[in-house]
Amino acid sequence: MAEKCVRVRVPGTSANCGPGFDCLGLACTVYNDLELRLTREPGLSITMTGEGATNIPCDNRNIVWRSAQYLLEKAGKDKEYRGAVIHMENRVPLSRGLGSSATAIVAGLTAANALIGNPFNRREILQFATNIEGHPDNVAPAIFGGFTVNAVTNGRVDCFSFLPRFRMKFVVAVPNFPLSTRMARKVLPTEVPMKDAIFNIGRASMLVAALTRGNERYLRLGLDDALHQPYRAELIPGMYDVFKAARRAGAAGATLSGAGPCLIAYVLERRHAEEAVGKAMLEAFRKHDVDARILTLDLDTHGAQILK
After folding, report:
1. Could you give the domains of the chain?
2. Is 117 annotated as a binding residue?
3. Is position 237 annotated in a ligand binding site?
4. Residue 180, annotated ligand binder?
5. Distance CA 150, CA 123 (A)
6. Tens digit of each residue's pLDDT (9 = 90 or more) over 65-123
7. What sign has the CA pseudo-torsion 164, 7, 158, 252?
8. How many Cα atoms occupy the beta-carbon half-sphere of 189 within 13 Å?
9. Annotated binding residue 45
10. Is 98 marked as binding a ligand?
11. 261 assigned binding-site residue
12. pTM (two decimals)
């Protein structure tokens, strides 16, 4: 009997949203698609097109396959399905801070779950994805869409997802160099001053309040950070100049996207400033000899979806 095939679409994400280090995230309208067929015989066939097609492993190290295997083991189906045919269509830039690894993890879990009859709900998929990724800030919005607030208690993940009260465009400057999450975490201190912790608690709280109430003034205030961006600035030439340029051109603010090096500007849709903001960000980067390209994205409101 021929094995079934499923196709999944997962949005890219931007983690941290400025002050919400490892806690806040959003899903945006750039997508990776996965086609998965589980086989009863061992063996892997993995093909891919698009971003990172020449750099992603096509063997047992592949994160999509490892995630699918993880779910099959949890369901007690790993002895029944020992191989897979995988095709990936990648549009999320690799190692740039837009959640490419999270899309692969969520895609593998979601597709494998669908193929064995959906024994796990989205909350359980989130727990599995967090166990694999190590933190929920990227995988949560990839699963649920919108903005997400995440908390981990003794390894258990809770996630609150919501949509903001105003429509925004996300203008993302994608530099022409990658930055590994490992390197971006390596520059962070193990302890921070109390004043910086208080600063970020206030800003993260203000950001969520501004988004849920639709308050532009406090959105601007809520995007500032003292815990991770100041330390990572040395890895991204001109980062703060790009932030300033985006604000001057009409953005409510800009942040480092995830671990970077992408920088993401938040632009209220009614201001129609996304084109000017993109040009300003590119010009600011050029002054620091960094070539970049612009992605203008919307908020994804659905998260991972099975394609019919």
Report:
1. 5-163 (3.30.230.10), 168-297 (3.30.70.890)
2. no
3. no
4. no
5. 12
6. 999 999 999 999 999 999 999 999 999 998 899 999 999 999 999 999 999 999 999 99
7. negative
8. 10
9. no
10. yes
11. no
12. 0.93
